[in-house]
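Hello everyone,

My group is preparing for a crystallization screen and wants a predicted model to guide construct design. The compound we'll soak is coenzyme A. Before spending weeks at the bench, it would help to have a computed complex in hand. I've included the protein sequence and the ligand's SMILES below. Output in structure-token form would be ideal because that's what our pipeline reads.
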Amino acid sequence: VTDDITIRFDPKPTAADLATFDAHWTGAELDRIYRHSLTHACAYVGDTLVGYVNVAWDGGVHAFLLDPTVHPSHRRRGIGSGLVKRAIEIARDRGATWMHVDYEPQLDHFYKSCGFRDTAAGVLKL
Ligand SMILES: CC(C)(COP(=O)(O)OP(=O)(O)OC[C@H]1O[C@@H](n2cnc3c(N)ncnc32)[C@H](O)[C@@H]1OP(=O)(O)O)[C@@H](O)C(=O)NCCC(=O)NCCS
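Reply:
Good plan to model first. Here are the tokens for the complex, ready for your pipeline.
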């Protein structure tokens, strides 16, 4: 991550902050997400939010990486992988043993660069 970027943990950005990323949660939806979050990490340039990732938790050994997003004008500068790696460290410190993620094939290189390895997994839309 480049020098002008600051990473903060659990700052609870508002729905308006996150809408600049095309992430359209309501305040009530975000409150629920934060209640189930083991940690979330945000990247800032000054006070401007430029990156976000959330880690949900089962309360035991399993943590789930969700919604990593970097503002389009700040991509490919190491912010996304920097956020994910720092969130993984915090999740480990807070008691998780396994970090899970699922993603589309074109992001394979991104997640490998964050330390993930392949496994068989499944997903189902409810
Ligand atoms: C995916 C995303 C978070 C990556 O953020 P980023 O800050 O651009 O990523 P980084 O600069 O840290 O990239 C780390 C590595 O992954 C690669 N990478 C990043 N985005 C990639 C993409 N879309 N396709 C292929 N490789 C990608 C980078 O080239 C880099 O490789 P290198 O280390 O060999 O140079 C960002 O593109 C994004 O917000 N996308 C839209 C939301 C999204 O799809 N999120 C994932 C949901 S599962």
